[in-house]
Amino acid sequence: MNAAMDKMGGAHSGRSNANAASAAASPVITVEDLWLTFPGRRAEEPIHVLENVQFSVRPGEFVCIVGPSGCGKTTLLNVLGGFVKQTRGTAVVEGEAVQGPHPSRIFVFQENGVFPWLTVEDNIGFGLLNRPKAHREKQVRHYTEMVGLSGFEKAYPRELSGGMRQRVEIARALAAEAHVLYMDEPFGALDFLTRLKMRADLVRIWQQEGRTILFVTHDIEEAVQLADRVLVMSKRPATIKEEVIVDLPRPRNLDDARYLSVRDRIFSIMGMDAQGGTTGKSH
Ligand SMILES: Nc1ncnc2c1ncn2[C@@H]1O[C@H](COP(=O)(O)OP(=O)(O)OP(=O)(O)O)[C@@H](O)[C@H]1O
């Protein structure tokens, strides 16, 4: 067991009973000694993106990944989703080494994930086309309501706001019974108020559903608002520099001194202050 894994073990102490139960279960995601280099095109040098990345995620956990722009956050999700093959190391999801995309692991991207030619209900039911009609309809009704889109079932994406389109994507992922949701800056294109609302709604939905979420964001405040645990990546070639447990009750109060303290700790790990300035040191 390496130092990063050791830290994870130590971090479990003092967590709630529910989290303690989750901690006892086998991890749903295990990444060990993961390296990835993209070959250089023509005369370009190869790009070393990931270096000795290791972490694990327990069932039902909400884990955020933050790190400097371009460090490899999306690439890491792409490896876990089976879209990109690592150069070395292992990525195991639900007990199986990742070999390629899998229907029970679903991506929610920043935008343009919904099918513009399908209505809201057909988008949400898309992952259930091979299931009996009655089951599909029940799931679609349930998740349409859960994400607050009742009344918009027959609307097309062009008739919806950006936040509503993201709700369709989230509902589609949940309806398809994805065990693991990979979310890559899903709220990055939304305005500030919509983003705040979407975060609160996502936490509520996650609490009801108990799915495992791995969520990439640039936004440290967003990570601290959402996550059980934040993995802080270093600059490229990226590794997990540190992981920070966010042991705060939900919904989280953004003025709470404990929230601000966790947030500032992550800024400090990244060598920044909360105003976006650099501190000149990172640990
Ligand atoms: N398919 C690819 N081929 C070659 N290089 C790639 C490929 N995909 C990503 N890269 C490079 O890998 C590095 C990491 O990219 P990635 O998109 O994973 O970073 P990121 O941390 O998600 O960035 P951001 O925070 O800006 O979204 C970048 O230098 C990028 O140019």
Automatic annotation (TrEMBL):
Species assigned in the record: Roseimicrobium gellanilyticum
Origin organism lineage: Bacteria, Pseudomonadati, Verrucomicrobiota, Verrucomicrobiia, Verrucomicrobiales
Protein name per the record: NitT/TauT family transport system ATP-binding protein
SUPFAM superfamilies for the chain: P-loop containing nucleoside triphosphate hydrolases (SSF52540)
Keywords in alphabetical order: ATP-binding, Nucleotide-binding, Transport
Domain ABC transporter: 29-260
PANTHER family for the chain: ALIPHATIC SULFONATES IMPORT ATP-BINDING PROTEIN SSUB, TAURINE IMPORT ATP-BINDING PROTEIN-RELATED
Domain of life of the source: Bacteria
Gene Ontology MF annotations: ATP binding; ATP hydrolysis activity
Gene3D superfamilies: P-loop containing nucleotide triphosphate hydrolases
CDD domains xrefs: ABC_NrtD_SsuB_transporters
Xref: InterPro entries: AAA+_ATPase (IPR003593), ABC_transporter-like_ATP-bd (IPR003439), ABC_transporter-like_CS (IPR017871), ABC_transporter_ATP-bind (IPR050166), P-loop_NTPase (IPR027417)
Pfam family, one: ABC_tran
